[in-house]
Each structure stands twice: as structure tokens, then as C-alpha cells.
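Project standup — Tuesday

K.O.: blocked on the structure for the chain from last sprint. Re-posting the sequence here as requested.
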Amino acid sequence: TSGGVGVAPTFQTAASGGGKVINVYSSYYTSNYYNSSIGSGTTSIPLSVTLTPDTVNSRFIIQWVVPHTSNVGYNYAELLLKRGGTTVGNPLQFFSHNEHAIAHPNLAVDSPSTTSSITYQLSATDSANNSNLWVNKGTQQNGSGSTMVVWELDS
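H.V.: unblocked you, prediction finished:
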């Protein structure tokens, strides 16, 4: 807090419990990935983080950025964050980007209520059932790498 001009600031100790970052996990994928037909099911993209929660009450903030493109045309594809068979957060829908890689950041919050190992995996699905998907590269140029960062918060 501030005592005014010319007075040194004072600092308070953070309140116990709730919201402190207790672990940070990350993954970085730099290779070009291509799937010629992602289909209506989900196709795993090689970007994931595996971790073991500190407590059953841990909460997680998951951020991912993936340069991607597709040839979906008037249909759409989705990037999904999965924990096991469960979709976490909202899918990121995208239409064709003229086959130039576009990176859309996405953020999700999860409370898995476990102390067993879990994996956050990025996947894709397609409304047209026949679209191509490029990750870290468009058909016209190279993209950059994909990242996933997971912050574990105490409850």
C-alpha cells in the first residue's frame, strides 16, 4: 500500500488459501503437423501436458496457442482441449483462413477433483468430415510453434 509521496511502500502478506499459483507446467510443439482428413470424430494433435495435481481441490488455468489452418471452406473445424474424454472449456471454431496459418489463443479453467495423473490434450474435429488440418504451418508458409501452459492454483 502507499503512504503517499516520499513514503516507502509497505507490503502485505497474501491471505492464506485460494488462488495462489503452486505449479506451472508447459509444453511446446515445433514440428509441422498435417492430417489429410480430420473427420467428425476427434483427432489428437501432438500438444499435451501431463501432470499430477497437488490436492483434490486444485484448480487449473490452461492456455494454448496453436498456429493452424484448414481447407474447411463453408464448414467449420474446432480445436478442443480434452482431459480424458471430457472437453474442457469452449471449443475454438474456425473456418478456412485461405490456408495461411493463424494463431488463436484460448483459455480454459478446470477443476478435475483428483490427485491422479491427468493429461490435457489438444484435439481437432471437423463439421465437413473431410477437411485437411495443418498445425504450425499453413500450406503457403511456415508458422511458429504451438504452446500449452497450465497453472495449478490452490483452493
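K.O.: great, moving the ticket to review. The chain has a mean pLDDT of 76. The beta strands are 21-29, 33-35, 43-51, 59-70, 77-83, 86-94, 102-110, 118-126, 133-135, 146-153.
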